Structures are given as structure tokens and as C-alpha cells.
Structure to design on (233 residues):
């Protein structure tokens, strides 16, 4: 679907509100918060094991860590989201459409992941095993899981294209000082880590294709009820 900048901004602001609401719901309920943290820790370890070969490669290690920590980590990302919400009008004015769309894609993915995590955490509680996890995973809508994976692919492809834009990295580096003064250091670091991780890869699109192929196989295995859904090449 073709979108204009103002439509992207509307979507971005809407998804930031969704992310904030999901995270705040966990904060108000200690049991749900503990369950969400346990779930995110489990998923981070699982992703690390599935993509251990990519983590071991010097050119793709940073990109895997960006996905595990900055896009899907168990640590508190609320400051990044607060920073982002503060400068949405500025981004609309100064960022090219593709860069704004990449940021929006990341938050759309984050919002969907947070909603799915809340549903699974409520079903699992803070203590569970791999079989429990798979059952709870199958309890979420397959269409949502397929959408989540498509968003991962879109985000990865967008970052792969952005790093090819001349001068964009230099512009990002020049923003460090103003971002710090404006109290936006958390957002600045997030943007730099993502850009830097994809910039250093020799074949970023191949990396994205590998991630999505493996995760797609796990999705199919899980909904098919296979004994070890995480056993993918």
C-alpha cells in the first residue's frame, strides 16, 4: 500500500501508543510483568540458539544482537519510545520517506510483538518449559505470527536499502551532539546500532532471507504440532 508521510506519521503515533499501553499493563501487574520478562528471556535465548552461526560471524553478529536486544529484548525500551514520540514532528520534516518508513516498520513490529507477548505471558506465567511455550505459541493466531514474520522481513529489507544511501551515516553521526543536548541519546543510540549493524554486512539481504526462512520453518513446525519445532537448518 502506498502511503504519504502524514499517513506514516499517523500510523507511527498510533503504534507508539499501542506499545506504551502494552508495556504499562505489565508494569501495573507484577505477576504479568514477571511472566513477560521470563517469556522475552526465553525467546531471546531461543533466537540466539537458532541463529548461533550468524552470531558467530563477524559481519552478522551485530545485526543479530540488534534484533535480539534493540527490537526484541527483555530490557526496558520505554525511554527509546518516549524519545521517539517526542520527535515525530521533526522526523516528518527532516527524514526522507524511506527512513521514516523504516522507523515506522520497527514500531509496528514492536507493537504486534508486545501484544502477542502479553497473550502468551498470561497463558504461561513466569515458570514454563519449551513444550508449554509451543502450546502457548499455537494459542495465538497464525495470521498474526505470519504478519510478524513479514514485518521482520520488511524491516530487514528496508535497513538493507537505507545503508546504501550516500551520506546518511554521516548525517546520523552529526546528530549525536544535538540528540544528547535534546535528551534523545537513547533514540540516537538505537538508530546508530541498527544502521551500523546492517552497514557492516557484506550481504544484508541474504542475512534477512536466512532469518525469515528459519523462522518461517519454526512457525510451520509449531502449528503442525511437530515434536521439535525449533530444529531447523
Amino acid at each position: 500500500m502506498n502511503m504519504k508521510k502524514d499517513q506514516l506519521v499517523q500510523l507511527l503515533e498510533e503504534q507508539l501508543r499501542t506499545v506504551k499501553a502494552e508495556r504499562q499493563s505489565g508494569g501495573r501487574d507484577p505477576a504479568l510483568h514477571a511472566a513477560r520478562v521470563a517469556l522475552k528471556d526465553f525467546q531471546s535465548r531461543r533466537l540466539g540458539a537458532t541463529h548461533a552461526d550468524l552470531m558467530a560471524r563477524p559481519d552478522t553478529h551485530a545485526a543479530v544482537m540488534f534484533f535480539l536486544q534493540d527490537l526484541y529484548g527483555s530490557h526496558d525500551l520505554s525511554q527509546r519510545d518516549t524519545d521517539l514520540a517526542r520527535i515525530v514532528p521533526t522526523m516528518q520534516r527532516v527524514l526522507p520517506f524511506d527512513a521514516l518508513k523504516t522507523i515506522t516498520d520497527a514500531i509496528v513490529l514492536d507493537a504486534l510483538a508486545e501484544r502477542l507477548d502479553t497473550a502468551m505471558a498470561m497463558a504461561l506465567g513466569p515458570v514454563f518449559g519449551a513444550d508449554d511455550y509451543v502450546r502457548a505459541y499455537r494459542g495465538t493466531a497464525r495470521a498474526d505470527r505470519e504478519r510478524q514474520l513479514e514485518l521482520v522481513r520488511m524491516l530487514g529489507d528496508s535497513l538493507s536499502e537505507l545503508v546504501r544511501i550516500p551520506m546518511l551515516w554521516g548525517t546520523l553521526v552529526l546528530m549525536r551532539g544535538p540528540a544528547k543536548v535534546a535528551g534523545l541519546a537513547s533514540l540516537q543510540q538505537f538508530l546508530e546500532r541498527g544502521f551500523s549493524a546492517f552497514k557492516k554486512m557484506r550481504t544484508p539481504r541474504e542475512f534477512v532471507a536466512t532469518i525469515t526462512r528459519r523462522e518461517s520453518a519454526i512457525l510451520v513446525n509449531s502449528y503442525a504440532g511437530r515434536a521439535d519445532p525449533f530444529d531447523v537448518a
